[in-house]
Amino acid sequence: MQDKITKIINLLKKNYPITFFSRQKPFNVLISTILSQRTRDENTIKASKKLFLIFPTAEKIANANLSEIKNLIKESGFYNVKAKRIKEVSRILLEKYNGKVPHELDKLLNLPGVGRKTANCVLVYGFNIPAIPADTHVHRISNRLGIVKTKTPEQTEHELMKKIPRKYWIKINEMFVRHGQTICSPIKPKCDKCPISKLCKKLPKDI
């Protein structure tokens, strides 16, 4: 299995050179990832750009009118819940951390609406700290490849941490996300164009 994982990582690295496409300020990563919940990547990007153009800091979001936040993030879906959540998170950051995002996993997980995927995204893309954000792409592709056999993204994260050397953790999410967006889609994956198809179990059912 270790040889297979190394081959997969090396092939993906060749096809998807690491760019840290989401590398931003920790606060931007945190809020954008909260907005990304239960929506498509393109909707998250649109909503995040609109929000940060008007309210680029924790202080500004915390003091913003809730209805204005809702209007800016409508494209992310579930905007009523998300607007309240990011406003509350911003308030806590101001009161407890002087407006800064903490870089400790447990402190991130204590913020409302922040689960392991969001916290790990902040660590990787905001602080360059090794972690494995297990989103839907990572969960789906890891199972299709046969690296793990799990039911939930959180289970996938823990299994990948056991099986993948720590030196690769920062790279895994970006490579799998880009592979999932371009080739290994949930429905009708482009297996004929996949650079790692020979290493894939090709599960008959989508994850």
* CA-based gyration radius: 18 Å
* SSE sequence, one letter per element: HHHHHHHHHHH
Distance between the termini: 20 Å
| Helix percent band | 55-70%
Low-confidence stretches: none
How many strands, which pairing sense, and closed or not: the largest β-sheet?
none
CATH superfamily of the largest domain, by name, is Hypothetical protein, domain 2
Alpha plus pi helix count: 11
CATH secondary-structure class of the largest domain: Mainly Alpha
SS content category: mainly alpha
Q: What is the name of the CATH topology of the largest domain?
A: Endonuclease III, domain 1
Q: What can you tell me about this protein's structure?
A:
This protein has 207 residues and is an all-alpha fold. It folds into 2 domains: 2-19 and 132-199, Helix-hairpin-Helix base-excision DNA repair enzymes (C-terminal) (Endonuclease Iii, domain 2); 26-127, Endonuclease III, domain 1 (Orthogonal Bundle). Helix content is 58%, strand content 0%. It has 11 helices and no strands. Helix 2 runs antiparallel to helix 8 and helix 9 crosses helix 10. The longest helix is centred in the middle third of the chain and has 19 residues, at 79-97. It is globular, with a radius of gyration of 18 Å. The relative contact order is 0.14. The mean pLDDT is 92.
